[in-house]
């Protein structure tokens, strides 16, 4: 049971744990969507380096914030990051950039809690509305629908030499999402 897991802002020391979740969850989520050779080639060492530099105080991208979920015992079982919207869709100042959990940590309310924590962060930063881009073929898109996201747009993207379609879900008011942190199903 992981509902008692702690969600907290990430620090550079979390880079190895985040990299491990990143690689494991991509390999479990994206077969059939991303090329096998890309998934096989994912390297925790490379991602650890990237995450360490992203999380280090030297040059964090403006307004970006990353959170981790840590289970009892200290293992990182998920991460999420958000910040200013990058794609220029009008009316949505914020963006949920990433949200990934290890398989065994899914389906227990942690994803909902991550979204709530990111919504709270964006609201405190003065952003009322946000969106997320997700691969059209990723069944996790229905998680965002369940959490009240409206389907906003669809666009092609090139990734690892493949043409893919992604869809955007948006929330014009982050307040109800932020309030989910108080949902008893979400745990502490
Ligand atoms: C998507 C993800 C973050 C959801 O987190 P989670 O902790 O498993 O989801 P929760 O337990 O918080 O679920 C919240 C609600 O969404 C629903 N939900 C979760 N995943 C769903 C899915 N794939 N389809 C439909 N509903 C879903 C749950 O049933 C729950 O509904 P309820 O309110 O009726 O109980 C997680 O499953 C994950 O890491 N998936 C793989 C990585 C991924 O695809 N990330 C998104 C990349 S953009």
Task: Give an account of the 3D structure.
The chain has 188 residues and is α+β, with helices and mostly antiparallel strands. The chain has one domain: Aminopeptidase. The protein contains six helices and seven strands, in the order βαααβββαβαββα. A seven-stranded mixed β-sheet has the order 1-2-3-4-5-7-6. A hairpin with a 5-residue loop joins strand 2 and strand 3. Helix 1 crosses helix 3. The two termini are 12 Å apart. The mean pLDDT is 92. The site of coenzyme A has 19 residues, from helix 1, strand 4, helix 4 and helix 5. It comes from Niveispirillum lacus. This is GNAT family N-acetyltransferase. InterPro entries: Acyl_CoA_acyltransferase, Bact_Acetyltransf, GCN5-like_dom, GNAT_dom. Keywords: Acyltransferase, Transferase. One of its GO terms (molecular function) is acyltransferase activity, transferring groups other than amino-acyl groups.
